[in-house]
Structures are given as structure tokens and as C-alpha cells.
Amino acid sequence: MIRNPLTRALCLLLSGVLGFGPLGCRNPGQSSLPPSAIVTPENVANLPPLPKGDLYADETVVSADAVIEPGDALDVIIYRGAGDEKYTGIVRESGAVPVSFLEVPVKGLTSAQVETLIEREVAPFMKNPRVQVVLKKKNPKLKRIFVFGDVKKPGHYPLARNMTVLQAISYADNYNETALLDEIRIIRGGNLSAPQIVMADLTRVFTYGDMSRNVSLQENDIVFIPRERLGDAQETAKKMYLLVFMALTPIYFATILPTFTTTPVSK
User: Fold this and answer.
1) Alpha-carbon separation of residue 103 from 67, 96, 125, 130, 186 (angstroms)
2) Domain extents in the chain
3) Angle formed by the axes of helices 5-20 and 229-261, to 10°?
4) pTM, to two decimals
5) In this structure, CATH architecture of domain 28-51+142-226
6) Rounded Cα gap, residues 107 and 250, in angstroms
7) Residues whose CB falls within 8 Å of the CB of residue 192, separated by 6 or more in sequence, listed in order
8) Largest alpha-carbon pair distance within the chain?
9) CATH topology of domain 73-136
10) In sequence order, which residues have a C-beta less than 8 Å from that of residue 156 and are 6 or more positions away?
11) Closest of 190, 155, 197 to residue 50, by C-alpha
12) Tens-digit pLDDT profile for residues 113-141
């Protein structure tokens, strides 16, 4: 039985910290709200699609799905019979580019779409025209992916062609020891109103060499690496250490103070 009230208070505080501290641990990747409380038709409809890039990180050639914007340059070659005609134009702020005597609206289209459009526009004036369009971006943007969760350097990184989850984590300066590698989630789809969840499992990759779980990434993929519950407890302990230390220090000194202040009994 502990009779000293200060010592008893010290013990109660320690037991409370040890007993209730882990209850405050929560994985930031897990929400306690049901999906119905998060997603509504109104806010989903207002989510804009993520912007797309023009180049892969390991290539210098503009990708086929790059969208034409004002300021870009287009080389247009029209083949007809044994000859050809070549035009070079800058896309104007209106979104149109001059091709011979035509003004072709190209803003927001890909090179392949513009080829089809120009062939249709010049068909009344040329027999069996074939069109080739070469896009030269004014300010090319790299394709990218996002890495969050229990990694050392979360953020967005340039996307290389055929990039995998394992490569993305290496870009983020590797994972932490508390990372949950068998439940990696990939939020896929530039259209955020209709995302797709893809699971990756790097534990099987490292244990069995099962590279089928090392998922290939696409542009604008969001890679999230969860953290183990033990890791949550460690993070909570680090944050609580200073608070507990400051709370216990006065009690500690109040407990040992009587040792130095008690008057010795004379014989």
C-alpha cells in the first residue's frame, strides 16, 4: 500500500499514460467516417480532373496523348498523290492554328485527333489527303505520380515509362521500418470523381520474388504506404514524451523534497 499521496499520484499518472496512450494511436490512412459521410453527388461532380503531362521522365519525345495548348508549335504535312505540302504554325490564344487557307481549332486535342480533323477539312479540296502532325510543346510538362504515407520523403515525382510501385518508393528515399508493405494502395484515375483502388504487395516481392504484385504505375497515380499499428504507437510515444516529462518533473521533486528538508531527530 502506497501511503505517500504524491507517490500515489505519480503512479496513477504513469498507469494512465501506459493504459490510455495506445488508445490514441490512429493510422492516418484510415478514416472512421463511412463512405456516405465523405462522398456526395454534389462534391464529387465538382472535383476537377488532374492535369496531364507531356513527357515521361526518361524520354524527350512528346507522348501521343499530349494535349495541344496555346503557344505550342505544329508541323503539319499534307500528302496528296506524289507530292506534299508542309505548314508550320503556332497555336493562337483562340486555340486555332493556320494550315494553308484554313483556321483549324486544335486546343485540347491530341496530334492524332488533329490529323483526322485536318483530313476532313481539306477533303473537299484534295483527293485522298493524308496528314501528319508533329507537336512541339512550348513548355513541356513531365508526367508525375504522388507518393504518400510511411516513406521518408513523400511528395510528387516524375513518372518514367513502365515505372512500378517499388521504383516509386525508391524515389521517395525508401520506406520506414514501420511501413505496411503488403497493403499498399494505389488511387488510380485522373478523374477524381470515379477513382479506382489497386492493391500492391511488396512483401511478396521481397519474400517470394513475386513481381506480379509490383504494380506498374500510370500518370497521376496516388501511391499510399500505410503504417503498422506499432508504428502509430511509436509516433504517439514520441509526441507524448515531452508532455509526460513536464508533468512528472514537479511531482518527482515534490516526492523527494522531504528527504532533504526533514529535521533529524535528536537523541
Assistant:
1) 18, 6, 15, 18, 43
2) 5-22+230-261, 28-51+142-226, 73-136
3) 170
4) 0.66
5) Roll (3.10)
6) 70
7) 47, 48, 49, 50
8) 127
9) wza like fold (3.30.1950)
10) 144, 145, 146, 147
11) 190
12) 999 999 998 888 888 889 999 999 988 89
